[in-house]
Amino acid sequence: MPIWNAILDAELIVFAYPVYVLRTPGQVKALLDHFACHWMVHRPDKKMFGKRAVVITQSIGAPNGAAQKDIETSLTWLGVSDVKKFGFGTMGAVKWDEINDKRRKRVEYKLRKFSKQYLLPKPVSKNIKVRMFFFISKMLHKNLLKTEDIISADTQHWIDSGWIKR
C-alpha cells in the first residue's frame, strides 16, 4: 500500500527504467500487475483520473516504444489520461558516463525541453480512451448487479463510489 498511496498523492507519476530485450523490465511489470485491482474494470480510484504520468526509457540502441506502451496501457487502465513518453538510445554505451559528450548533451537538452511542460501543475480531464473504458466498465457492473446474488467487491466499489445505483 505505501507505493500505491504515494502514487495517489503524487502530482506527476514518473516511470524511468532501462529497456532490456525490447520490453519493460519484469520488476516494473510486476509492480503494475500488483495494482491491477485498481484497473477501470475492477476498483478504480477517482484520484487517478486527474493524474499525469511520464515514462522515461533508455536502451542500448533498440527502439523504446514497445517497452513504453506496456506502461502506458497499464496507466490508461488505471485511469490516467495524460501519459507522455521520452526514450533514448545510448548507442552502445552501458553507463551514462560512457556516452560520448555530443550525444549526452543532446539527450540532456531534449529531456530538459521535454520536462518544461511539467514545471507547473495543470488540470487533466479524462481523454476519450479513459472515458470509453470507464463507460464500458460501468455498463459491465450495472449488468452484473442485475445477475449477482451476492454483490462482488468490485461492484460494491462502483456503488460506494456513486457510479452505479443498486
Characterise the protein shown here.
The protein has a single domain, classed as Flavodoxin domain (Rossmann fold). 44% of the residues lie in helices and 14% in strands. The chain has six helices and three strands. It has helices at residues 2-9, 26-34, 65-77, 101-115, 128-147, 153-160, and strands at 12-18, 52-59, 82-89. It has a three-stranded parallel β-sheet with strand order 1-2-3, with helices on both faces. α2 links the parallel β1 (12-18) and β2.
Instruction: Specify the helix fraction band.
Output: 40-55%
The geometry reads as elongated
- CATH homologous superfamily (4th level) name: Flavodoxin domain
Overall tally of domains: 1
Task: Describe this structure in a few short sentences.
The chain has helices spanning 2-9, 26-34, 65-77, 101-115, 128-147, 153-160, and strands at residues 12-18, 52-59, 82-89.
Which keywords apply here?
Rossmann fold, 166 residues, three-stranded parallel sheet, alpha/beta, 6 helices
Topology:
Blueprint: H1 2-9, E1 12-18, H2 26-34, E2 52-59, H3 65-77, E3 82-89, H4 101-115, H5 128-147, H6 153-160
